[in-house]
Each structure stands twice: as structure tokens, then as C-alpha cells.
Amino acid sequence: MTISQYNIYDAKTQFSQLVERAANGETILIARNGRPLAALTPIIHEPKAGRTPEFGFMRDKWPPFTDEEWAESDRYVTELFDKIANEEI
């Protein structure tokens, strides 16, 4: 973890950049006359429990399907939906 120190005036003039750096994991100390008074630190966000992943989130990860296999599965799913849509209830 990187720690940087800035005097108040410099921190005010570069505030947006310092916040971005803190969000990326760096700790920024704000000082007056070389004495640290405050710190900008990253906030660690935990993933929400039970969050449903977006459709296709595993497409490029596992299993390693080829484009042809994806196209074939898309055709199969489309046929299933068409078949169900055309059935009388």
C-alpha cells in the first residue's frame, strides 16, 4: 500500500485526483506544516450477498466454448422458445 502526504493547499488544488488515487488503493495524508491531520483512504466494498450475476457472466471464463458452440446453443434455445410459444395452452 502506498502512502503519500500533501499539505492542505496542495490537497485542495488536487482534490479530485487525490480522491481517485485513494479509491484505487492509495492512502493520502493531509498535513499542516508537515504534521498529518487527516487521511483519504480507500473504502473496501464487499459484494452484496445473494446478488444475481448478469446473464453471460461466465462466457469468456469457463467452460471455454468456441463461437460455433455458442451459436449452436443460441439456436437450440431459440428453437425451444419458439416451440413453447407455438404450443396451445
Description of the molecule:
By secondary structure, this protein is of the alpha+beta class. It has a domain at 3-40: YefM-like fold. 39% of the residues lie in helices and 19% in strands. It has three helices and three strands, in the order βααββα. The chain has a three-stranded mixed beta sheet. The mean pLDDT is 81.
Could you list some keywords that capture this structure?
alpha+beta; YefM-like fold; 3 helices; rod-shaped
Q: Considering the protein shown, what is the CATH homologous superfamily of one domain?
A: YefM-like domain
**Category from helices, strands and their pairing:** alpha+beta
Which band does the percent of strand residues land in?
15-25%
What summary fits the major beta sheet?
3 strands, mixed
Query: Can you tell me the CATH class of one domain?
Result: Alpha Beta
The parts where pLDDT drops under 50 for at least 5 residues are none
Q: Please state the overall shape, judged from the principal axes of the Cα atoms.
A: rod-shaped
Number of continuous helical runs: 3
What strand line-up does the widest sheet have? 1-2-3
